[in-house]
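During the first year of the project, the team set up a workflow for recording each protein of interest as an amino acid sequence followed immediately by a discrete structure-token representation. This format lets reviewers and collaborators read both layers of information side by side without switching files. As required by the reporting guidelines, we include two representative entries from the current panel. The first entry is reproduced here exactly as it appears in our internal archive.
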Amino acid sequence: MTSASKVRDAVGRIRWYVRELTGESAYDHYVAHTRACDPTTEPMSRRAFERSRTDAREADPREGFRCC
């Protein structure tokens, strides 16, 4: 393994970790789950998914405090 490929591999792992930590990969997980459970179902668009996720988070006070 060359030095450049080691760096690329490390950057890829860090990127994966940050995406998992921040929740950015949630849509990717949702699409994979939807296609695995029912391949004929069309997944929500990214925008609709994020809107649904935000609405659910704001409706449930246990998900986190939001002052405004």
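The second entry, processed by the same pipeline in the following quarter, appears below.
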Amino acid sequence: MHQGSGILSTRQRRLAWLGFLLAAVQAPVSAKLVSDGSWLFSLCVALMVATVIIADDAARRRPAEARSRD
């Protein structure tokens, strides 16, 4: 049984992880430094990127035969 390929290329996947880590680190730092709630934007971006990474993981773990039937 072959593993399916994901929705992201290897390079895109690495950049998504980098973007997630940067946004996840920036949110608490900006929350500490800024008095308004603008740090929530960084948190939302990190969550959206994490969702894409999880969807890519699910697509990669799905067997190739199951993908071709859909």
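For the second entry, the following points were noted during internal review. The radius of gyration is 16 Å. The chain has a mean pLDDT of 87. Both points are flagged for discussion at the upcoming steering committee meeting.
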